[in-house]
Amino acid sequence: MGVSFLSTIPPLLPLVPVPSLTTTTTNRYPSYAKYQVTIRCNKMEIDATAEDEDRFCRRDILKCAGVTIGMELMASSGLFVEKASAADLIQRRQRSEFLSSVKGTLFTAINGNVELLPSLLTLALNDAMTYDKATKSGGANGSIRFSSELSRPENKGLSAALNLLEEAKKEIDSYSKGGPISYADLIQYAAQGVLKSKFLASAIRKCGGNEEKGRLLYTAYGSNGQWGLFDKQFGRTDTQEPDPEGRVPLWENANVKEMKDKFVAIGFGPRQLAVMSAFLGPDQAATEALLATDPDVSPWVQKYQRSRETVSETDYEVDLITTLTKLSSLGQQINYEAYSYPVQRVDLSKLKL
């Protein structure tokens, strides 16, 4: 074990007489006059001797005292820091374990209802697209769960997807120890689950339908490791009322300019519009054919189509993950303590040996 820095500094206000500073010109510390003390402070060494007393003044003592007291306080706060760190680690583990279970539940629900995959993506998009930059209102806040918003023309056909998530939510809430999952989180993590399922399916196809090789390809070269920032945003808060009307286009009837204008309004551009083509309707190929008619969007459409032909689909998958991560946080202040819960203390007095 190393020697503490504090041990090199003698106490300046001792409770019990100990060797301290020396001086030959005054009798302020007569009982310690015979000692010579070396004081180390901030890598400075000063020999306080009778011959060298002019080099050591009260300011030097106060400097060393300040350092000593500060470091003693830091040392004494160690227990508090350790407790805070432990509590933080416990919360992280609780949230991580709960999120893992949520993903498992959603994976089962999604893969049992593959016909709803496009609707689940549009559900996530439309919930977030209500965001208004000017007023900082709307966004990915679960407002689409309200019947008055779900029944709007732009959300036509999305009720089956929401019903699927309602059933998944019942299961998730039944095992949650930190309160019910928010619709805002549920909807966006369902979209994540859909994309992961699509990415994996693509890898399996490129391996001739061999599922084992496809999973290995996706694990080794795919984008599964790019979801870190998305997963850190676990803790979205639900709104308690529908978002205002007129903020989400009717995608199936909108022209490319209307789509671009909406994406620009929330802080995106042609690149993000192109990469999110799968979110804009059930037929991704038809959507991309329409987007390719616009000179601003066409280069990005072609880029992502070429990327999907490669083994890893890196450009397409990474850009899509990045865009969804930003989209799913619009209008949100993430609660990083959400879904954590108090740990039950063990009463050691009741243990029998």
UniProtKB/TrEMBL annotation:
Its main location: plastid. Belongs to the peroxidase family. It comes from Castanea mollissima. This is Thylakoid lumenal 29 kDa protein, chloroplastic. It holds the Pfam family peroxidase. InterPro entries: Ccp1-like, Haem_peroxidase, Haem_peroxidase_sf, Peroxidase_I. Residues 103-278 form the Plant heme peroxidase family profile domain. Keywords: Chloroplast, Oxidoreductase, Plastid, Thylakoid, Transit peptide. GO terms for cellular component: chloroplast thylakoid lumen; chloroplast thylakoid membrane.
